[in-house]
Amino acid sequence: MKRALLILGVAIALISCDKKEDKKEDFKTGYIDTAKLIQDYEKFKDEDEKFIVKSEEMKRPFAAKAKAFQDEAASFQRNAQIKGMAWAQQKGAELQQREQELSIEQEALLRQIQVESDSIRSSIVKELKDYIKTYGKKEGYDYIYGTGDAATILYAKDPYDITADVLKKLNDEFKAKNGTTDKKEVTEKSDKKEEDKK
Question: Residues 133, 139, 142, 146: is their CA dihedral positive or negative?
Fold first, then answer.
């Protein structure tokens, strides 16, 4: 009987030890300012610059049509008195039709630009989420929270802010993939070489 109680006591002790091991006393947590992360991420800046150039190219044919329409409208006002009322009514109706068509074309163009912009942004946000997940696992975080546009933290102590660390690693990886270096780093290195020569 004593032996059975002893075995039962040891079993209970082992089970309670296992439960304590499952519970972690200390959690490693941190937060990232997501707005700052996106704003200062070199890839986002690079993609944004490329998209601005692309959207300007997309707008160029429409701008030419709009300019031609404005010139024709200005010419219509000058010629309306010379060519008579019948001509003015017919030409005015044509111009109204073209103005509506241009307005529809402009709306479609702006929608296309917005869709492409949203697609690029969504792709980068997904990439950042995947990176943060991998970073969190690698660095041993239990939780990583986000602040910024969609804040999930109302207050946190500054030492828990890991934005700068994640941003530096992201930008370093992006630069390594694209073979670019920070302009500031290049300037500092060239200044240091000049000082060394003196």
Answer: negative
